[in-house]
Every structure is written in structure tokens, then in C-alpha cells.
Amino acid sequence: MELLRRLRIEPFILAILAAVVIAAFLPVSGGAATTLGWVTTIGIAVLFFLYGARLEPRELRAGLRHWRLHSIVLGATFILFPLLGLLGQWLLAPVLGASLAAGFLFLTLVPSTVQSSITFVAIARGHVSAAVVSASVSNLLGVFITPLLVFALMTTDGSVTITWGSVGKIALQLLLPFIVGQIFRDRILPITSKIKRLALFDKAVIVLIVYAAFSEGVAEGIWTMVGVPQVLGLVGACIVLLAVVLSLTELASRALGFDDRDKRVVQFCGSKKSLATGLPMAAVLFVGQPVGLLVLPLMIFHQIQLIVCAWLAGRYERAAGEPDAKVA
User: Fold this and answer.
1) What Gene3D superfamilies does its record include (predicted)?
2) Domain-wise residue ranges, the chain
3) Mean of the per-residue pLDDT values for the chain?
4) C-alpha distances in Å from residue 96, one per residue of 83, 106, 223, 231, 288
5) Model pTM score
6) What is the per-residue pLDDT for 79?
7) What is the CA radius of gyration of the chain?
8) 274-283 pLDDT, tens per residue?
């Protein structure tokens, strides 16, 4: 651990990279994948239960009222990202081909992540209650906005079917545990306040999400469809995209006079794209299309955003003080 500190390497980042490498060589499949899915689902639910238990009700009410912050996050997710995606598609099509360039555009149209966005805000000592609202609203609205954006900005064959399944999943897996945590806060808080390394649970859930998502892609054989130069080109494009959005969201939140806690919400919630939401959407949006190629940019961006934001959250965490202090 001392060597890692001297090299300024976050153990959290190493854990994420290890999950990617293990998934590449030992992807989970079959019954094990089903079990991992349930473990991840339960872990996320517990995570949000603990968030609810740790947040004071007045913090949550303040988060709901923070309309300027939520507007910036939604604007970054559904306006800034798509504009950059259109530019990226135009630049990348001659180099990567039409399908991968279209996939790059698609990744910019999906909603923000929920669990990882809020987890990074919590790690970075940001305004967690506002993050819960921003990320959840983004994901819920994305069920409707993303198909409309796909119709408006992409050429697709087949039909789009919108169901309430994803909405129900968000409500049951994320919002309900959070509300229950709020209800039983007075009973749970004395227990959680005595657990000094509770932040490790937040990070462990993120590592599980990375392993599960990357395993799914490997099991589908997506890496056999493209060459190394194309993958490297996509990686470079995704890095540039994330850097631009992180910079612009930081500048916007600073220009609007947000405090540091709210800046973390704008940065982490406004710069994420959800693989968990994007993959199911792609399956129904692109019937008869090369879905594997269309979702590859999203898969790559998802891994990059987790690694970069893990580093960034750790940097903010160190600047804020004690790593395992309680997040309010």
C-alpha cells in the first residue's frame, strides 16, 4: 500500500482494472452470471438503503429543490452529449466505419448511470441527495428521451418498444431502498456510524458492476468483430469525449456559482452514460442491425468513465479530508 501511495495509484483503480482483466480471461457465464447478477442487484439495493440511512431528511429536501443543478445535469446528458456525438460521428465515420461511428453517437444519447454516479459523488464528498435526484431523474427520463433522440438523430430499421420494466427496476432497486433507509434512519444510523470502513462497500459494488458488465460483452464475443486499430481509435475518442464533458460541466458549475459539493454532482452525474440502460435499449432500438458493433463504443466509454471518475473521486476525497468520514 505504501508503494501505491508513492506512485499515486489508487487501489480502487487497480481493483477496477483487475476486474476488467479477470473478466477478459475468465468471464462469468451461465448460472454463475445469474448469481452475480443477483449479488450485484442486492449490493446496489443495500448501497442505496445505506445512502438513505446516512442522509438527513433536510438534505434530501434541499436536493429536490435544487432545480438549477438538475437542469445542468439533464442539459449535459441530453443536449451537450448528443451534440458532441454528432460531431464525433462525422469525424469517426471515415476512420472507424459507419456502424462504430453510429455506435459512438448512440452512446451519447443514453441516460446517465445511477448507482456509479451517486457512489462517486459520495466518495468525493459531494451532495449525495442532489445526486440521487439528478441521476434517477436522468435515468427515468432517458427511457422516453433516448428513443426519441435515436429517431431524430440516427437512421434505424425496425420498431421501438417502450415498457415500464426499466422504470419499475429503478424504483424497486434504487428509490425504494433509499426511501426505506430514510424511514428507518434513526435506527440504522447508530449502527452504520460505528462501521469505520463502510466506504469500501461502495467501491466493492462498483467493481462488481465492472466485472459483470465486461463479462457480458466478452461472453457475447464482441471483441472478435473489430480489429485492434479500431478499438484503439474508439478508446481515444471516448477519452476525448469524457475529458471535454468533465471540463465543460466543471466550468458550467463554476460559472453558476455552485459550491464544491454541487460541482461534484454536476461533474459525476452529467458525465456518465449507463451501460445497464443502454444495452437493453439497443436490443430493441436496433432490430436487425449490428447491435454488437453499435454498443461497443458504449461499453468502452463505460469502462473509461469508471476508471477516470474513480481517480477523480479519490482525488476529491483526499482533498476533503479523512477518507472514511461519514458522507452527509
Assistant:
1) 1.20.1530.20
2) 9-314
3) 79
4) 19, 15, 15, 9, 20
5) 0.71
6) 95
7) 19
8) 876 777 677 6
